[in-house]
Write a structure and sequence with these properties.
Number of domains: 3
Radius of gyration: 23 Å
Structural class: alpha/beta
Number of strands: 22
CATH class of the largest domain: Alpha Beta
Shape: globular
Largest sheet: 7 strands, mixed
Strand content: 15-25%
Helix content: 25-40%
Distance between the termini: 71 Å
Amino acid sequence: MSDYDFDVIVIGAGPGGYVAAIRAAQLGLRTACVESRETLGGTCLNVGCIPSKAMLHASELYDEAASGKLAKLGIKAQVELDLDTMHAQRRDAVKGLTGGIEFLFKKNKVEWLKGHAAFTGKDTIDVAGKSYRARNIVVATGSNVTPLPGVEIDEKVVVSSTGALELAKVPGHLVVIGGGVIGLELGSVWKRLGAKVTVVEFLDQLLPGMDGEIRKEAAKIFKKQGIELKLSTKVTGVAVKGGKATVTVEPAAGGAAETLEADAVLVSIGRRPNTEGLALERAGLTVNKRGQIEVDHDFATGVPGIWAIGDVVPGPMLAHKAEDEGIAVAENIAGLTGIVNHDVIPGVVYTMPEIAGVGLTEEEAKERGEVKVGKFPMLANSRAKTNHEPEGFVKVIADAKTDRVLGVHIIASVAGTMIAQAAQAMEFGATSEDIAYTCHAHPTHSEAIKEAAMAVTGKPIHM
């Protein structure tokens, strides 16, 4: 009889953790997964990716009807917002998907250890007062909200992304602190439902890390939609009184302060690795200056038998990155070869239009050598024009000598879906010519990718 309770224990049941557990079990390993929430799926399924997309979709449909966009298509209707029902369908989506993971755990014989995990040694953990020993332990505890010093989040007036999904009524004025993905997505939801929205960003552009041209175009689109942008601006204080908030801001470079009166304030300045309470030191683990656990190419830490994936390790904090790492780490533990190409991880902002990118930005690519760039506007794409979705463009960046695609960046209504083609092309080492000579169905939004690729080596047909 083995001295080990399990071959693998995964700590955390988010997109990385639950996927790692299922894959490990599929490979014949005795597997358990630790999760303290009442439902599986982690932040993504419970209070992140999934519920936010439910609200984004519902608010888009409401806006199309309420703003008169549908009337222009010959569809006239009297529109009324039922926020309670909108919240209910969001919760129903979450319930269905988290329940689905619990079903998959049972199907694959993954044991759910309910409670918080803390290391007691290199191969042992404590969960709810009980000790468990495993040959391999995978840390997949995800991330949590980065706090803004001096600002208390009460999830009523001053909220995190979690509280922003649960607002019981549409705020008259929502101030969003942070011009990143989460702030823009949730700000867009409440703007469409009737709130005045002001986004305060310390940097001089929105969406840090994305392609410069994309960032500038996105700012133009959000301004056109009525979202007020205060760039190069820092928040120096938030005071709450009588169910209202006063936000004090001033120019990042220094200058006179001003105050913004708000019904709700969303703090969305980023996320940080979630390692508190794990007692990593008892296992001999340390974190870097950013609070992350360093791993090698196989996701092994410096302690044999302990692995880490997802938001607790370096790299973009994205659910799909964590999922791919979950599969890879399970395969590596099982003696197979699990690989994730971190150079081809797409990122998506689910606003309307959506914003997506994969690979190098134009700025990054030019730092490495000479490049060729092809662009094509969605205004010239027949499907986008027919659907009255003219905003945005596709941008393909290729190496000037080899023509190999280095990055693709898109603003379009379905950019999140379109970017998959670009990621797959890059995974196979495609050139812009490869994409240009690939037949695309007509009429589709994806034809814009073909035309942008044609623009790299010659001229697009429809521009």
